[in-house]
Structure prediction request, 315 residues.
Amino acid sequence: MTTALSRRDRVAPDSGASRGTSRARLWANMRRNGHVYLWVSPFIIFFLCVDLYPTLWGFGLSLFKWDGFTPPVFVGAANFVRMMRDPLFWTTTWNTLVLLLLIVPARTFLALVLAAMINSAIVRRKHFFSAFLMLPNVTATVVVAIIFNVLLVTNGGLVNTVLGWVGIPAVSWLDSTEWSKVSLAILNLWKATGYFALIMLAGLQQIPKVTYEAAQLDGAGPIRTFFSITIPQMRNVILFVVIVSTIWLVQNIADAMVLTQGGPSYSSTPLMYFMFIKAFSQFDLGYAAAISLALFVLMTLLSAGTFAVNRRGAK
Prediction:
């Protein structure tokens, strides 16, 4: 008994002293690296004001019924129950997932192929082609929409005219519930693939040329080199492109707004555009805030799934 008490008495002061030492080291470290926290503070303030506060405010708003003019009325989880029962919510969520499946894999692959072509030894004036890839991305969305309307309009459109020359009947690219999402996918691929190709190109230029030279000495052709060396070496860059491309696409409303106006019958309305309509056309701000939280959950799940697939592939 005495031994146990004496041992406990010896341990207690030591643990308290260790906590005091750790606290002193923490304060000493903060004083020593205070300038680092000073330089980081603008970003922290920006994050708190622009990201964290609106997110928390949006969560609070989702618990109210508010039109932006009259006093808000607390409704609890009614907006979320309404969202689960709203067929348009599920329709626009499905539209978003379909657009992701149509665009993200195709854009990632095309961006990697374009970057590999520019990075190859047979292509000269790489800076010219790199600048050329950015042209669609810097073109105004309204101008792009006008161009694609001319190309894809059902009667007299350039694409349907060319299809008619080879005996294929005209396609209702913008007026059909089946083809309107394809039209959005084509526009988005044309507009943003070049930007992601530049990111891929920067990653390709970090791969040592010795690796490709060794593969050529072993008799590997261009296709074998692409799949056996380029893609494995570019795994982290591809992951970055997939995640950023997914976030951009989920947040994009301009393409649907100016090309198809979300129609026909909400067939090309993504979830973000549906939230925009509820917030700024119908002034149903509480319901729009609930949809924004659903968007946040969707992007989180998609990003987590992408990380999980990449981690499993790395093993």
User: Anything to note?
Assistant: DSSP finds 15 helices and two strands in the chain. The first strand starts at residue 64 and ends at 65.
